[in-house]
Every structure is written in C-alpha cells, then in structure tokens.
C-alpha cells in the first residue's frame, strides 16, 4: 500500500499543477464541467483499484473540478455488478460510473440497454493497444490492464524453488500454502479461471483442490496473504504486486508463468440511468487523462497515455505469452465456471 507521505506529496504536486493550469480545459471538457457542477457529484462503483487508490483518483478529480464531489464505492467486481443489477431492478440506481476487471459484465449491461453510449474526447490520446480493448460501439473504454502472475514470499520460498507455471500450483509440496481468489466475487479471478479451464480443463481445479488452497474473495486478498507470510504462493495482479513490493517493501517476488499470463481488461462505463450523467462522463474523461496516468505510473500500474513512461518491472503489452479472454466467452462461461468452482472447493 502506498504510504501516506507519498500520497500527500503526489496530491500536493497535482494541486500545484492544477492551480497553474486550471483554465486549460478543452471546450468539451468545459461544457461537461459546467453541466457536472449543476449535478454536484459523481458516484463511482469501482473494483479495478483498491480503496486508497480510488480515493486518491477521486481527490485528484475534485481538485481539477472544484464543486464536483467524487464518491468512490470500492468492492470486488462481482459484488459491484450484483449491486448495480439490484439497484436497477429496484429503480434506485446510485452508481453513475462502473469500473470493473471483467468486461463481460459491461457486455451484459450493454445487451440490456443499461449503458450510456459515450466516446470520451481523451480516448484518441490513449495508448493504441489499450484503446483497442474498449467497446467498438462506444459503450465502455479500457481503463486499466494488469496480467495475472504467480507471487511468492521471498522469505519463505527460494527463487530456484518458486513455481514456474500454473500447473506447479498443485504440486504436493505447496499443500496448504497456495492462495487464490473466488470467481463468484472477483472479476479478475473469473477471467483467470476461464483461461485456466481453457488451457487444462476442470481437472486443473480438481487437482488444485487436493492441495487445500486458501480461497479468498478477491485476488488482492489472496496476494496479501503472501505478503504477510500466511501463505507462500498466490495468484496475483502484476501491477498491485509491484506496488506492494516497491512502495511497501513487501517480501515478495513474481513469476511470469511459462504457460501464459492471463490478462483481465479493466473497463469503465457510464450507466444509462445515471442520476449524474455529465459528471459521469467527466470522470470517464479524467480516467483517461495524463494526470491519472502519471498517478498510475507512480504506483506501478500501467499508464494509459503514451506520454507517461511504463513503470519498471511491467510486462510489455505486446508480449506473445499474454492470454486474453474475449468478453463474450467470459460471459458465456461465467455461470458454469462459478458453479463448478463452488462444487469443487465447497465454498
């Protein structure tokens, strides 16, 4: 977790930059800002960042756009998605913007006519490889990427003994020492489980169950157990692992599995029934800004803008060993994957 002094320094620097260039809005941005001020706030349901990172982005947003409060509601992807569905059914939607690690969720919302079509002005400036991961019809944008890798505790596991591929996770020597998330709660884990099932069939998970892994709700919870030494090995988000290693000094290291790194794509959309649609559009624009990319790079996440250098330790998005799961495939298989997971692990 990024330290308070680091956060304070970043926000202070951003504020100085903002006050010296606060009138540098594009005409589209200015129009959205004026409309958003009349709405007063934006509510952001988000799973792609942890609570502290989401809070910081909201603070930066409100610094740039005084008079528009940003309210992040952080949870796992499946929890946020289910909450949105329940609110829509009740006719009492609270979220304006939804950011998730599972693009199949927004595909489902799009199919139900529950997303607002909006192509951000800033999208044209995004790294082309990431821009292409968004919806070609303009209902959501790719707002983050982070490969899923294997994480191990360096105090407990010598480098030469660390797992090198996914099938190593069910090696008996790691019995009761592996942590993973749950696809019924975590969008990133859902994508990972779909990819692993494509590679090895459900037999992989049946063998893994015999190793008695710890099942956390989210991928972040799983990798936190490795940082604390409660487990030796976990699946992990590369960007968050780098953040913990470099900014918190976690005794961990990563392995890029030889059989492929699964790449969940984080996406952001504005909901069609949003109470504050202009503020929602403004937040979506801001998430694609240079300012947010600079912050993301400072916490070892992939920046979305080519003007910002990719953090050391990140994996090239052109790496041939990356595994992408199409949104439609993830959606088609999600219920089966979640059901099989519950049956296999009893949770």
Question: How would you describe this structure in keywords?
Answer:
347 residues; alpha/beta; D-Maltodextrin-Binding Protein, domain 2; 2 domains; five-stranded mixed β-sheet; 13 helices; 43% helix
Folded structure, characterized:
The chain has 347 residues and is an alpha/beta fold. It folds into 2 domains: 4-143 and 265-298, D-Maltodextrin-Binding Protein, domain 2 (3-Layer(aba) Sandwich); 148-262 and 320-345, Periplasmic binding protein-like II (D-Maltodextrin-Binding Protein, domain 2). Helix content is 43%, strand content 16%. It contains 13 helices and 13 strands. Strands 1, 2, 3, 4, 5 and 12 form a 6-stranded mixed sheet that branches. It has a 5-stranded mixed sheet with strand order 8-7-9-6-10. It has a two-stranded parallel sheet with strand order 11-13. Helix 3 (51-64) links the parallel strand 1 (41-46) and strand 2. Helix 1 runs parallel beside helix 3 and helix 2 (27-39) crosses helix 11 (277-287). Mean pLDDT is 92; it is low at 1-6 and 15-21.
